[in-house]
Prior knowledge:
By secondary structure, chain A is of the alpha+beta class. Chain A is built from nine helices and 14 strands. Chain A has three domains: 41 residues; 126 residues, Uridine Diphospho-n-acetylenolpyruvylglucosamine Reductase, domain 3 (2-Layer Sandwich); 93 residues, CO dehydrogenase flavoprotein, C-terminal domain (Enolase-like, domain 1), CATH 3.30.390. In chain A, a hairpin with a 2-residue loop joins β8 and β9. In chain B, α13 links the parallel β15 and β16. The longest helix of chain B has 22 residues. Classes of the chains: A alpha+beta, B alpha+beta.
Amino acid sequence: MDLDIDTVRVARTRADCALRPGEAFLGGGTFLYSEPVAAGVTGLVDLTGMGWEPWSVDGSGLRVAGTCTLEELVSGPGSLGGPPGVPGPYRGLGIVGECVAALTLSAKVARTATVGGNLALGLPAGSMVGLFAALDAVAVVWTPDGGSREVAVSDLVTGAGSVALSGGEVLREVRVPAAALGQRTAFRRASLTPNGRTAAMVTGRRIGDDVALVLTASVPAPHVLLVGVDDHEALDRRIEGIAGAGDSAWYEDTHGSPAWRAAMTRRLAHEALEELGGTA
Amino acid sequence: MKIDGADVAAEPRPGQCLRTYLRDQGATAVKKGCDAGDCGACTVLLDGAPVQSCLIPAHRAVDADVVTAAGLGRFGPGGDPSADADHLHPVQQAFVAAAGFQCGFCTAGMVCTVAGMAGAEPEQALKGNLCRCTGYRSIRDALAGRVNTEVAEPGQAFGRAVVAPAAARVVSGREPYTLDEPAPPGLLHVAVLGSPHPHARITRIETAAARTAPGVHLVLTHHDVPGTLYSTARHENRLDDPDDTRILDPVLRFVGQRVAVVVAETPRQAREAVALLEVDYETLPAVFDPEAARQPGAPVLHPGKTGAEHRVAEASRNVVVQIHQEHAEPGHDGVDAALAASAAAVTGTWTNDRVNHVALETHGARSWLAPGPHGDVLHVRTSTQVPFLVRDELARLLDLPKDRVRVVAGRVGGGFGGKQELLVEDVVALATLRTGRPVQWELTREQQFTTVPCRHPMRVTVRAGADEAGSLTALAIDVLADTGAYGNHAPGVLFHGVHESMAVYRAPNKRVDAESVYTNNVPSGAFRGYGLGQVQFAIEGAIDELAARLGIDPVEMRRRNVIRPGDAFVVGQPVDGDLEYGSYGLDQCLDLVERALARRPSEPVETGLNEEWSVGRGIALAMIATIPPRGHFTHARVSLAADGDFVVDVGTAEFGNGTTTVHAQIAATELGVPTARVRVRPSDTATAGYDTGAFGSAGSVVAGLAVQRAARALHAHLTTVAGANIAPIPGHEDATITPTAEGGVSAEATHDGSPRSVAFNVHGFRVAVHRETGEVRILQSVHAADAGVVINPEQLRGQIDGGVAQAFGSATTERMVVRDGVVVTRTLRHYRVPQLADIPVTEVLFADTVDRLGPSGAKSMSEAPYNPVAPALANAIADATGVRPRDLPIQRDRLWELLRATES
């Protein structure tokens, strides 16, 4: 929709990324342009003008720019993952396609929506969090003073719609370590309808004799559970631990009741643990 | 930027999205459905790839090549740049051939999406496109290249799958919907301040800052408008609805109700001026639960309203309308005694949540003044099902003679009952009268959810008893409807809701208790089925439960108890009126569905169904009167035009119901010509004779019958009578022949909508239920309809597909979540309208009947398919699991909860 703002600047250099009063960053824009602009925002700075390379992979791992579109993510890193179950240096990326498909957006919107935008929204159902947290990724954040800092993707989202980014900070890229790229990963989700908003999502990665499971969508902020291979009892205890946090442990919105989400999360987590069993 | 091959140089505004930029450049093939990236109506090809243009920042597209539906045939993938401008792309041709649209508002975006995603599976290709009319079956057919339509021989169009006359224009985005005509010079825009409180009185409203804000031409508060009471609901008789509403009211009764109106040169200026309004409110106690609202001590929403003056039954109890009736046949002692003595009796309560129409075109209107013979005429072009009723009430509210108001509906982008209301027209009309300028108001999708009427939520308690043989001994219902803050459609929906639903069953003892109650919720209104679906859901559940108790097959149970020709129609009392058995096909519908379900085994043969799945089947039936009661009037004129074609002027509106096609078919058949020689001009109060409107499924059987009479008389005149002789023609005394100004001749006929017949629908499902997740898979869906003689088999099937799909949404996922009067689900990503992937294919079967009242034996069939779907689904789930869902929608999480509660 039309946004009631007065200026749009297309950022070309890092200096352009310094926000002026009233300005906010524009990523792909598929969320920003879907709702009236927040009060006080009078201008946008379009990060897609930075011309960042969408993604690259080398010996140190995978880098995905904040402005990498979801379509680019699927067609690039997603295709490196290869078909499910096939070993290879990038088999950890086998869940990329499912993670993008888990979003309610269509292929049309995936063409414009960005990885950074999805992460920075901090929505419980924002599947990029579950993807990159499962891949042990860190986010590189440009700070307004010209420096940068790193934050683990699993720590980036701190609550429903809140992220560990301060005003003027830019989510420059996420970095997946090389080791994670070659490890087995798993994906599960539940929704009220086949293409509906994800109500519970579990991503996981096999790490030696352990499995890291990341719970998103059913919880306000991601939970990372490290449990032994095939240790379903330990998994149950960890999930009980989440429930012990109180009424707000399970996220509530119109896309599924908290009790159902809790049950689906448990079910999916056991399935993912099962899938990641056997030999590493 | 290039738009459909043409260069444009205009600079986009900061923050402007591509969709409004394109429309500003005249590319009105690009529609606004949701403005939030959820519906896909605005899809265009951006440098060859489909995008939802409402989400694309226009500044990024200044160097892009944009193709809209209007340019798809020439500039789309595989297009022919040298072809004529109206050349259709193969995808567009496929949509025409398959009849892959109804209202067509989604179609321009749909064809761009499909053309840009060749090879994708339908479920994925259309993940981002919503269609509210078709139920997607015909769209699947279009994608598969199936041809569902045909060209009829001259005079043979009746009964054939003729293409809609507007098809080529619809699929290429050229058919002008309400706001698609070029903006008149000086057009002003409306923004409205909505109430932040569910119940409050305005104690102060300061408008000075808003009035002097840039671009503002007018600010209206309750001090500035006529205080005339009216109802937003429109009916043939305006006394059907309570007079409880004002254009702007100092008392606010729901969150979002209009507080004040700003009219400015741009929508943004209007919005920004709204923010400058200063309002003080005295908040009042609010009530949101209809049961609480009718208890002593509850806040009273409309104190002082009376039955005699305002048609509010008991204002002090918030009761708008009530029905309390009991009937016992001779020798019977009433419901309570019968239930006590019955071999089996069930009592249960069923509920449904609020449902939104989600017509893809939001409410919107544009008004202007143009000179007429007796002074300026106020023109209002609006998205309405009832242009004449809007005209009449506007004239009353604004104190204008009717001939000084002209209301026109272009092609309407979906209605489903939601446009049988006066919701935006009063504001634009008043603003035009005050400013002298053209004024437009287009509701946002959020306003569609938060401020305009939705379907009535109801709580229905059923008590039913039967003897050992399964014959009903008693049937009683207690209905509580939440009409929200205003009583628009409250009486009609309540009376209709309990009417055919009760009348379809024979029982010697019957009782109806029903009340519709004011609450501080968003108003409820007319919705497809008009109350029947809610009540039928409960009754069909109770009948099913009774059959299960007695060990009787559910189809057999219904056969034993449904009315048959000759039986009286009994609701809570025998009905004394004009309802007749013009035909009867309920027995056939039951047989058809039973046989179809029997053709498939009940075992979980489908792959992937392990022991966690339970399989079951269920059916439900519904009856509907073919025409609304108490008069539905139409006046049709068929003329021989100067060019030798025939013109049908008829007041009813085309909103995807297919009446334009039907009227062309009827006229062409009577006149013995191809349908291409018939032009239908609907829904203009200045050119057409009066028509009550396109509701109550009346377009085919009321307006259609008048068109038939007029066309038949014109044909007789042309073939048997010399040119200037306009004497009545023997056998055609029901039509008048008149010479036209152009030297031609026309015939006019009317119909008063009486007597009325009955139509029937039966739906059957076979389902698999996953107990661990609450997932329900549809293994089979079958629908039988008794529509009399079928006028257009493809359109009729489309109406049924669409009704079933809309009902499937209400039954499984659609739910307006309202907390303390605040609608939480205000976008389409949070209110889940079915996508293509969600809708099972339904086998559609027709009963073989000929109605003696409808045109050439036809009956109406557009609301009715909605009604039996939800109960059939609930009955199938009950059969599968032993647990009966009684609350709609049956979402996965709710069903899981229900199954879990029963197991523990």
